[in-house]
Predict the structure.
Amino acid sequence: MSELAVAPEVMMPPVSGGIYSEKIAVGGGPVLDFSYVGIDAILEQMRKKAMKQGFELNIMVVGQSGLGKSTLMNTLFKSKVSRKSALEKEKEKIPKTVEIKSISHDVEEKGVRMKLTVIDTPGFGDQINNENCWQPIMKFINDQYEAYLQEEININRKKRIPDSRVHCCIYFIPPTGHCLRPLDVEFMRRLSKVVNIVPVIAKADTLTLEERDFFKQKIREELRANGIDVYPQKEFDEDAEDRMINEKIREMIPFAVVGSDQEYQVNGRRLLGRKTKWGTIEVENIAHCEFAYLRDLLIRTHMQNIKDITSSIHYELYRVRRLHENNTVAARNHPARGIGLNLLSLFYWLTVQYNSGCFSSQITQ
Ligand SMILES: Nc1nc2c(ncn2[C@@H]2O[C@H](COP(=O)(O)OP(=O)(O)OP(=O)(O)O)[C@@H](O)[C@H]2O)c(=O)[nH]1
Ligand SMILES: [Mg+2]
């Protein structure tokens, strides 16, 4: 054997999962599978990167004063997030919200970090004249798109643009049991065009099961009749599987939720609930209310999709509109720019004519 020759066992990959895939031969020894490229390893690389970067989700809550918006957000955080802090602040009462306020929580679970931001809004539509009361909320949402756009078009861009865009707006419907109010229709009609709306029936413990089912059905009909496309929007279903899952959610919407930031001992377990004379309503128990479905939609099953739709649909619409506006204003303010564009079009037309041989044929004739 020459000095350069290498024994076959030296060429073997060290362990499985390395750059070559390994199969076990009939004799027991490993055999190289040269057909294996290793594309599937991208998943592990993405997982590692995502774990390092962490995740962000921005949720906004909107609805009439006293419907339990702040409480439900506390429920969402405490049920999933910090039972410890719930116990520490057990006696603390939630104050009335008086201004649009963003509160961020850093959450970690099984090594995955997440920055969950809640945008709490004060009672919406509490005035006698509620005309245009959706405007401050619309402005807030657009301001966040604008901030993102400005960062994006900056020459010296940050490696990671801070994302304060509202990914999802939970709209609280009062538990009247009748139908949507014109204000609810107006808000959802306008806002569903700029943000993902998830409607919920607030304080669902005040409705009987029959009332609840009737109300849910009625709301779905009214949303349809008014052309209001709430999340998950039918037109953005990606494939048949997506459609099947989302169809089930669409049949359940709006979720009838109950919120609480108080813990109680029930059958030896500590859980979030509302204690009444007749028993304790367990907020995470699907036999009692639909809070768990809402939490699953927002966090466990659709979080990435909610963010993708915000970015690729809602923000994109805003971005195109804004850049278009800028161009129109620029062309109007600088006539020379308009002339420049016309010259450019003329040059383009001449190039096309030349390339198609139009000119040469004329010359040779
Ligand atoms: N019955 C019942 N009461 C609730 C529920 N959620 C909250 N509450 C109570 O309703 C009251 C108002 O709750 P908040 O969370 O402050 O309501 P809000 O919508 O944030 O009110 P504003 O900040 O004024 O807009 C509190 O006493 C809560 O304990 C619920 O699901 N069912
Ligand atoms: Mg509040």
User: Anything to note?
Assistant: The pocket of magnesium ion (ligand 2) is lined by residues 69-70, 97, 120 (CB under 6 Å). The CA atoms of residues 35 and 187 lie 57 Å apart. The two ends are 77 Å apart (CA to CA). The first helix runs from residue 41 to 53.
